[in-house]
Amino acid sequence: MKFTQRSAALIASGLAGAMLLSACGGDDDGGSGASGDGSFSIYIGEPQNPLLPGNTAESEGNQVLDSLFTGLVRYDADAQVQFTGVAESIESEDSTTWTVTLNDGWTFHDGSAVDAQSFVDAWNYTAYSPNAQQNSYFFSNIAGYDDLQAPTDAEGNITGDPVASELSGLRVVDDLTFEVELSAPYAQWPTTTGYTAFFPLPPAFFDDPAAFGEQPIGNGPFQAEEPFVPGAGGGITLTRFDDYAGDEPANAGSVEYRVYTEVDTAYTDLQGGSVDIIDTLPPDALASAEAEFGDRFIETTYGDITSLSFPTYDERYADPRVRQAFSMAIDRQAISDAIFLGTRTPATSFISPVVNGFREDACDVCELNVEEANRLLDEAGFDRSQPVDLWFNAGAGHDAWMQAVGNQLRDNLDIEYVLRGDLPQAQILPLRREQGMTGPFRDAWIMDYPTPENFLGPLYSTAAIGGSNYTFYSNPEFDALLEEGNAAATDDEAIELYQQAEDILVRDMPSAPLFYRVNQGAHSERVDNVIIDAFGRIDAAAVTIAG
Amino acid sequence: MGRYIARRLLLTIPVLIGASFLIFAMVFALPGDPVAALGGDRSLPPAVEAQIRDEFNLNDPLLVQYGKYVGNLVQGDLGIDFSQRPVIDTIEQRLPVTVRLAVVAILFEAIIGIVAGVLAGIRRNGFLDNVVLVSTTLIVSIPILVLAFVAQFVFGLQLGWFPISGTSEGWGSFLLPGLVLAAGSLAYVARLTRTSVAENMRADYVRTAKAKGLPRSRVIIRHTLRNSLIPVVTFIGADIGALMGGAIVTESVFNLPGIGRAVFDAINNQEGAVVVGIVTLMVFFFIFFNLIVDVLYAVLDPRIRYD
């Protein structure tokens, strides 16, 4: 009898509890106080790492850090560099030695001053390989970088300590001035310094990097008053930093970054009014979101490129005419319309349209031209009887469009294809490194900073082989133009040289540019002035609370 | 009984050691290079990659890696994941979410399932029996992913009865996900109970009890149900063990940061320490709840003795 009595009691209390709880459930958005003090929430995915500028290389963590820190320069919505950050000026006579002068009066959230030392210390920490910071390579063009890398043997085992722990190219002149000596001239270097990797760090960081990663102390428009605990579900709420020294302080009182594992769930929450801004739409919503949200639907071009890269080391793809033919056989517009529903636009250049130096007509072989493609293929003596392997990483939503690319190769060039999309990123990357691609493969690049060089050097220069140059393309002429561009005296000269370098790429086609991503997001009626920049980041400081 | 339980608990130690080694070996055997994938489409600098490999002993042979892992384990250190976060923190953070979800699901499963099963079983082929038959068939045939999205859309967004996602409403956040998670098992429990009850209703002792003039409710609850519960308890016990391992689909759709999603991500990222730590814990839960089931047998059926 005991058994049944107990379970009856359980039923009763369980039901009563359920009713009570559901009665107080529902909309959980707290009151938005007076205008200027309200709070709003932004959808993010789980950041990969603790929130350290030197170790955050993905968009979710970047989004949060962008609210917590302000770098030397800032980028506006059109990816143009603005001196609205900590730097008063960044100047150089020879594009090699740069003098950075800081504005006075900037402080970190804990009150310590943002001075030259806080930049130099942060950069040295990130560049030093035993600290294993993912953004280390951003400092690879600063003199002395190699001395901060631990030596390794042929199998990749570490064999000792780095020679030095501080970059010889960084010199503090006084509190508000430091010098940066690059290992080679780079005229557009100031443009790079707005990226997350270049943010300053206060002395508190060096006392306890782990604690800092949970609750960063930055110099940005928002500050963290609670630790961010990954996986805790809630995310992190940041409050306005009232002593912010920048020109554009936060409009709202606080911002909550809410972590979701599924964008579909975030979208349903947006519809239900319990999250305010999302910067990505789930695939099902693409067709209907614009109509549903009207002027609360946001669309911006993202600074990235997706390409079909060729294994130039493979005899079959060694002839540039073959690669050009493949490029001309792909109807980018059709794929963009039918499969991406407008969230991709056809690429017409190796460089993203958000970058100064982009030319809309840079790549004449990026347009559909079936006749010319077949002519080139015949000329090159390509064996059409053998199928073509198309490689991409599994589980990332590339199946449909890669299949569409394959279908177009089949229809336009009369070549059968085999989809090689079974391997996840962790397995396909080592293959790409070891020249294991047996056919064209999906390649993608998200810009670090808005310069043409960033779309050329890291992907196609000889120096990047072993890095992100997975085509193993190497052309001294291209390398030389890139170097000249880096050393140019002015931006305009640099851009012209980069464009000449790009022309060589169009001729050699190590990779066929396919698409630029279009960011689509939406926001609730509670917020306004929602801007998504070319990095896919929402400018949280600019957001205003309606009413 | 005490000795029996102690012996069973002692047996879990070799099982856990064996399981952890097997899991460790399986993660080790996964093809691919987890460190190379850390940078996404971009390569990490070679010295940084080497540093990470060194830190996680990834260049060592399997037995050396496992030895180092166990060495840390006996000192209470479960290791860290690729983002330097201690595995024990992840478990501490996520386990309560999983436990709550499992508790709610089990309550729904046991209460609704058993009640529906009894109602159907005492009058076989009656109206209620047919209702239960049709509705459970329907539920079992809907994939949980569909069920979760539909429930979230209808009850969360359109009707607003439950929070759409997250854990901000305390136990209230778990009602809808718990019901969704329980749905499939609930149908099984109802079916099991129904069959078992229907069979026992025709047993001699029930007829005797009825003949003695006992009230109908007493006959059903005390005599029929208690005897019918053994297969049901077995099923529910095994189900608790499984639910404690997390529910990836439900956790993802309702944005509940539980252990299931953590282990799913860790397997994808090939984070050995996380996978081994969490899965070994799951194995322990499974053994533990099965032990409870075995003990419950004796409670339900006095004929079963363990000493």
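qc> Residues 87-122 of chain B form the longest helix (36 residues).
qc> done
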